[in-house]
Here is the input.
Amino acid sequence: MSGLDEVVRPECGSMRKLLRVAPDAVDLAAVDPRSTPGLPAAAGAGKERKGWARKQVELLGAELGRQQEMLYSAATGAAGPEAPASAPSQADAHLNGGRPRRVLLVLQAMDCGGKDGTIKRVAGAMNPLGLHIRSFGPPTEEELRHDFLWRIRRALPPPGYVGIFNRSHYEDVLVARVESLVDEATWRARYDLINDFERELTGSSVTLVKVMLHISYAEQGERLMERLTDPTKYWKYNPSDLDSRARWDDYQAAYADALARCGTDAAPWFVVPADRKWYRDWAVAHLLGETFDALDLGYPPADFDVERERQRLRGEDERVKVNGG
Ligand code: AMP
Ligand code: MG
Here is the structure.
């Protein structure tokens, strides 16, 4: 085993390329949920890979944290943390296209697919100050009075933030379709609506990272049994999980269609084999890291005269000495 104290890049060069699904060739059955694509030889073999990957996620986490801070600093700068994106400052010259970016990780998976665990491990490495994490459950009465994207728009991360969606607008073409919560014409129309919406987002400073955590039927069964065996996990179980499980194939078909219809160059879908939790976290951390790299982030320059401020500070020190001492 090597690479114990530095980040080892995947051998393929890019996890984004490796895990991206081509919209015209979505075949989930062909993706082995226990596979570990892109894992370098440095990971070793067999059981030692887990420890290696966990350590790598820690190291990567430090990198993600730095990148996230740059993203955040560009949006806040000296103008104040909640400065509107439209308020120009000297720092703007340094930003992509003059607008502070935001990154939005969209996590979708079957129950027990590992969305919560991924957030804990990968987002856990970043600064909570710059994170914007939202979970989506069944729509409330108020949400149902609006179109399906209404609650999504309200949950978008502000400029400079890393947003994470634990489920998303895709539920409206997944559970809504499989459980016939709306008629077919309605869910069918949503693919185009989603594409329009995401085009609008990517056109206005949002970088989307859409990830499906792909687990197997057998692995879901084991994780559900764990939840029914360990009293500290009862809270994660919902009897309706078994109803969804009974419709596994319908859900897989709905996922395949969503990935095929809504995978675009601007907002591609990635499928992460997720039966092995350590691989899942490692892969998602790299997907995020590569996304940050492509944004070419940096810290904003000072929008004040640094030398003058230093002099003022020294002058202040002098006065305190005179007065106080
Ligand atoms: P969990 O993620 O385990 O907390 O469960 C959230 C539940 O909310 C899942 O059963 C989802 O299918 C359900 N859900 C999320 N979004 C929607 C939606 N738009 N319509 C109906 N159910 C939804
Ligand atoms: Mg659940």
About this structure: Residues 78-96 have pLDDT under 50 and may be disordered. Residues 73 and 254 are 39 Å apart (CA to CA). The pocket of adenosine monophosphate (ligand 1) is lined by residues 111, 136-139, 167, 171-172, 175-176, 181 (CB under 6 Å).
